[in-house]
Structures are given as C-alpha cells and as structure tokens.
C-alpha cells in the first residue's frame, strides 16, 4: 500500500538515477534534487526524474514534491500524458516485440508510481482522458504479465471509491444559511442552547475534534498550491486552475462559524449568571481542545470569546473565573508570530510521532495560520529562477509543510460521533456581527455615546424591518 509523504521521508536515499537527459542551458547534468542543497531544473528534467525505468524508481519525497508543485506549470492530465509517452518511448513499448525481461522489471515500478499518484492526488484522475492514458500504457505491458491488467483494475476500483468518498462530505458548510441579524422571536423558538444539547465540556471538545478531522479529510494537498498561485509569471496572464479550493474554503468557513456560534451562545441568554456559566463552559471546552491537540477549535473558541460584543460584557465577565481563560489566551497570543502556539504545536507534533494511541496522534493546527505560513513561503520565493528553471528548493520546503499537514489529517478520530451534537454545531442559527451587538446591548446597556448611537442605528435598521 503506497504511503503518503511524511516529513521524515524528505531525505531518503534514492535508487539509481533515471536515464540521463541533455541538461538545459545553465543546468548541471548531475544536480542533486533532494540533498538539501539549493537546486533547480527545467520542467523537462523534473518530469524525467519522475519517470521510472527497469532500474530506477524516484524517491517518495520527490514524487510528492513534484506532483504537488508541477500543477503550477503543467496540468495534471498533461503531465500524466507526458509520463506515459516517456514510458512508451524509453521502454520501446510501441515495438511489435517487447523485451519481456526488461518490461517485467519496469511494470511493477510503473504501477507503483500510478498507485502513489492516485492515492495522494485522486482528483487528478477525474477526467476520462487521464484514465485513458493509464489504460493505454498498462495495456502495452500486459502481454508480458496479465497481473498488470488485474492490478490496474484494482487501482481504478480503489480510485473510484476514494473519489466517491471525497464527494460525500458534509454539505451544510458549503451552502450554510447566512447568520441571522437578530432574534425576532423568543430565543427558545429559534435556538436551543448548546448547553441543553451537550453540558459536558469534554464531550463537546471531542465532538469538535470529530468535526475538524472529518472536514480535514476532504482537503487535498493540491488545494494549498491552487489557493495562492493563480498564474505562472513566465507563462503570460493565463490563470492556473482556479476554483479548485472549495474544501479548503469550506474549512475556513467552519472556523468562522464556530467563532460566531460561541459568541451567539454567550450573548443570547438574558440572565447574567447564565451568560457567565456559558463562558466558563467554553473555557473548559477550549482547555480540553488544547489537551487533545485540536488547536483550530481552540483558536475559534478563544476568538469568539474575544469578539467585541462578548468582551464588552463587563458585568458578565466579573462573574467568571478568568484565570484559565488567560492561560489559553497566552497560548494563542499572536505576539512573536504566535511563538507560544508554535511551541505547543511542536510539542503536539512530537507527541504524535511517538504516540501509541490514536488520541495521542491528534494534531489539528490553527488552520488560518498554516495557510498564512504557506502564503508567505510562496510570496517570499519565485517559482522560477531568472534562467527559467523551476525553483525546486522552494517546493521542497512547501512539500515539508503540506506533507506534515497531510500526515496529521489522516489520523483516525478515536471519539465516537454523537450525531445530535454535530448536527447542532453545523446547523444552529448564529447571529451576524450586528445581531451580536444588539444582543450584547440588550444584555448590558450601552456605556458610552458611541455605543448608544450604534444601538439606535442597529435597532432602526434591523428591528425596524421586522
């Protein structure tokens, strides 16, 4: 079974190199691609390193890095077509008589490459033309061993199952209703309190982790590349593969929804004591998220409690034991480029590497910061060097970050799902920012001229429409 790249795979030794190709102008003929030294190469050379032969198979790290980054320069279906063409040409698979001994050494390597590609980037194989290229080249080697055709059939079956599973994610976040402006009916008629559905902070933290891991399963590694690099500067103004980041965007929407859900749950109760109780409940949930390694839910909860409509509730906060909250805020403090959080993340990552149980393996990073890190990595280095070569060193670093994330998202959730809780998390109505302010002002009256004016404006614009 092919395995997805982990960061420890980034410096594995390779098997004998591919057939030598004539180096492009200014390119070193035997330039190492994975030894940690600065490296670059033409697209043709990088493609050649991807193609297996009877005596050569590329490193797993190279396969992942190149397949991740190559889509910035060539569409996946075109890349596969070129790989298949090179296989046919180099192994002379278009000849009437095949060298069976050589094909029997080459065939398993070709199928292994296709298996790793389909396992890690299954969405690259959604077009029939792509499947056609694979069937063609495998059909050419099948006369040497019918097992190749059977293996190809198994791979296609696994691919179809994987694509079907990826297409069955929770749809509620992709087409969620907009936040409601304000409650126009008694709260109970539009919204059950979360504490009425789940009053145990440990259980809620586990269900949040279940939701996070379920959402992460649908994010393909290629989405990180497609989200930030829309064009290759040397290829004119043609955009590269936009509209292929819906799962990544849905996950960001989930984070935002959780922030607003937390704020809504706090602002909605009419009684101060109940609001304080809800705040303390979320503090306990956030602390358990930290212990689990679910930093994304942790940050969403902390962010929700720090929203202005919540933070202004001074009388409410006066009844809250805030020591635990200040500890959580310290862990997620943005000072020093989130230095404290990054230290905690490294600790969770180390725990994951040495874990003996699924629970200890859980690492769910603060997703917006991960995206920001990848964005600045992309912005800080050019995709191509002045001589036109691809800056492969940059993409090695990109692959390290994305590869680590892929390892984390593959962890199986150890917590049993509670459908009633997850359904509530996905579907409970949430207030818009204006709705939150109105609820906040209703709970604790405006304290200054600015707040009073805002309250009047909001009441006339929102409540006046009801």
From TrEMBL:
Region listing for Disordered, in residue ranges: 1-37
Domain (Ras-GEF) ranges: 200-446
UniProt superkingdom: Eukaryota
The species this protein was found in: Rhinolophus ferrumequinum (Greater horseshoe bat)
Sequence ranges of Polar residues compositional bias: 1-11
Any matching Pfam family: RasGEF_N
GO MF term (any one): guanyl-nucleotide exchange factor activity
Domain N-terminal Ras-GEF: 34-164
Alphabetic keyword roster: Guanine-nucleotide releasing factor
Protein name per the record: RasGEF domain family member 1C
Gene label: RASGEF1C
Classification via Gene3D superfamilies: Ras guanine-nucleotide exchange factors catalytic domain, Son of sevenless (SoS) protein Chain: S domain 1
């Amino acid at each position: 079974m092919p395995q997805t790249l982990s960061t420890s795979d980034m410096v594995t030794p390779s098997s004998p190199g591919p057939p030598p190709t004539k180096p492009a102008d200014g390119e070193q003929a035997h330039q190492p691609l994975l030894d940690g030294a600065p490296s670059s190469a033409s697209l043709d050379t990088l493609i050649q390193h991807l193609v297996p032969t009877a005596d050569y198979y590329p490193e797993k790290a190279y396969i992942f890095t190149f397949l991740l980054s190559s889509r910035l320069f060539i569409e996946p279906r075109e890349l596969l077509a070129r790989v298949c063409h090179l296989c046919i040409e180099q192994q002379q698979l278009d000849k009437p008589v095949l060298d069976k001994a050589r094909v029997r050494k080459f065939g398993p390597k070709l199928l292994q490459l296709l298996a790793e590609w389909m396992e890690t980037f299954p969405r690259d194989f959604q077009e029939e033309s792509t499947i056609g290229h694979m069937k063609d080249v495998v059909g050419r080697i099948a006369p040497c061993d019918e097992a190749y055709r059977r293996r190809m059939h198994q791979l296609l079956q696994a691919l179809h199952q994987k694509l079907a599973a990826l297409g069955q994610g929770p749809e509620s976040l992709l087409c969620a209703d907009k936040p409601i402006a304000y409650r126009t009916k008694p709260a109970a008629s539009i919204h059950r309190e979360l504490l009425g559905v789940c009053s145990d902070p440990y259980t809620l933290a586990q269900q949040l982790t279940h939701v996070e891991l379920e959402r992460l399963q649908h994010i393909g590694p290629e989405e990180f590349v497609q989200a930030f690099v829309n064009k290759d500067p040397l290829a004119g103004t043609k955009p590269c593969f936009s509209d292929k980041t819906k799962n990544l965007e849905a996950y960001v929407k989930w984070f935002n929804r959780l922030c607003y859900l937390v704020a809504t749950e706090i602002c909605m109760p009419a009684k101060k004591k109940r609001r304080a109780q809800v705040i303390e409940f979320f503090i306990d949930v956030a602390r358990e998220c930290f212990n689990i390694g679910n930093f994304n839910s942790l940050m969403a909860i902390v962010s929700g409690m720090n929203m202005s409509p919540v933070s202004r509730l001074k009388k409410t906060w006066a009844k809250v034991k805030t020591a635990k909250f200040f500890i959580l805020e310290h862990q997620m403090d943005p000072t020093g480029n989130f230095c404290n959080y990054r230290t905690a993340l490294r600790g969770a990552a180390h725990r994951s590497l040495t874990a003996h149980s699924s629970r200890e393996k859980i690492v769910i990073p603060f997703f917006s910061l991960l995206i920001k890190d990848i964005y600045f990595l992309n912005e800080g280095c050019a995709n191509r060097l002045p001589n036109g070569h691809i800056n492969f060193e940059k993409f090695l670093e990109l692959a390290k970050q994305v590869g680590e994330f892929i390892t984390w998202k593959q962890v199986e959730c150890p917590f049993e799902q509670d459908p009633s809780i997850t359904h509530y998390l996905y579907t409970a109505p949430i207030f818009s920012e204006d709705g939150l302010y109105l609820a906040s002002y209703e709970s604790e009256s405006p304290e200054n001229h600015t707040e009073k004016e805002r309250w009047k404006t909001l009441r006339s614009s929102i409540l006046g429409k009801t």
